[in-house]
Design brief:
The chain is of the alpha/beta class. The chain has nine helices and nine strands. Strands 1-2-3-5-4-6 form a six-stranded mixed beta sheet, with helices on both faces. It has a three-stranded parallel beta sheet with strand order 7-8-9, sandwiched between helices. The longest helix is centred in the last third of the chain and has 19 residues. The chain starts with a strand and ends with a helix. It binds glutathione. The site of glutathione has 13 residues, from helix 1. Glutathione (GSH) binds next to helix 1.
Length: 284
């Protein structure tokens, strides 16, 4: 599981590395980028999960995240969105298969052998980053669209691993939109009972955001959503997440951003707010 550096760039006084390694979770090579601020550290970590069709490169080159990460002293880790390769199952559509891992462990053929992104991110990736970089051992998670769904569901299902969670234009209830229904049918099968664990709105409705003492596991969840996003009404449905959170007593700051679409121009406009949100919680 040793990391191999394929490219290195200086950026905002820190270092950006593109890396690859042989993953035991997916049984394939996996690629990622890691930004480390200037200095010895140790630094807390923000994991970023990207959306449909993305590799680690989209966020790395388009989000403009590293000035704020350097200022706050935060490592940013951006993994690829799925296993890839000739021996890995795929589908010609952009919303299934390679580039569309949905951050879950598939149980169905032909996906189950390699599509194990929940185990990859929550187990192997975190262990690898803590072993190979000067981290404080605390981390937060954020992401966009399918990656926003990933950030929310991984945080809700593994609250001990993450200090805080935020998302841009997340797929808030994949069991109730076409992207999610298609992917979950393929990866998890027809039994919808197995789907709910991977639906952020349903997890919050079921009490996943509450700790055993009745308080919130997360003091707040920051969501930015552009109101000119072409996927807003049919796929993203933030109103379902907000309604579930309000009913469950989980604070969510849902910011509807006027005029913004689904692109990385939207992320670039608000990523500094998200890094500040996480940095405040990562340093306490
Ligand atoms: N290709 C799809 C949309 C895919 C898409 O918008 N992907 C988003 C995440 S859901 C993205 O980040 N794309 C890569 C990029 O903008 O760099 C379509 O045309 O409907």
């Amino acid at each position: 599981m040793t990391l191999q550096t394929t490219k290195t760039h200086a950026v905002h006084g820190g270092t950006l590395r593109y890396l690859k390694h042989d993953s035991t979770a997916t049984g394939t090579p996996m690629t990622l980028s890691v930004f480390t601020p200037a200095g010895e550290g140790p630094f807390p970590v923000l994991i970023w999960l990207s959306g449909l069709t993305c590799t680690e490169d989209n966020f790395t080159t388009k989000a403009g995240a590293y000035q704020a990460a350097a200022e706050h002293g935060v490592i940013i880790v951006a993994p690829d969105t799925s296993p890839r390769g000739d021996g890995v199952a795929d589908d010609p559509a952009y919303d299934l298969g390679q580039g569309a891992g949905f951050y879950l462990d598939a149980t169905q053929a032909p996906w189950a052998p390699h599509f194990r992104m929940e185990t990859y991110v929550t187990g192997e990736l975190i262990a690898l980053i803590d072993a190979e970089f000067a981290t404080t051992g605390v981390r937060s998670i954020s992401g966009h669209s399918m990656g926003g769904h990933g950030a929310l569901t991984l945080a809700l299902n593994h609250p001990d691993l993450f200090r805080s969670v935020s998302a841009f234009a997340p797929i808030c209830s994949p069991t109730r939109c076409a992207w999610g229904e298609k992917a979950f049918t393929a990866y998890l099968g027809d039994d919808r009972a197995a789907w709910d664990r991977h639906d952020a709105a349903k997890r919050i409705a079921a009490g996943a955001a509450k700790d055993p003492d009745g308080g919130g596991v997360f003091d707040d969840i920051l969501i930015d959503q552009g109101d000119a996003d072409s996927f807003l009404t049919d796929q993203l449905k933030p109103e379902l997440l907000k309604a579930a959170a309000d009913a469950a007593g989980q604070k969510i700051t849902l910011r509807m951003q006027p005029g913004y679409d689904h692109s990385y121009f939207f992320m670039a406009s608000f990523i500094a707010d998200h890094i500040a949100f996480h940095a405040e919680r990562l340093k306490t």
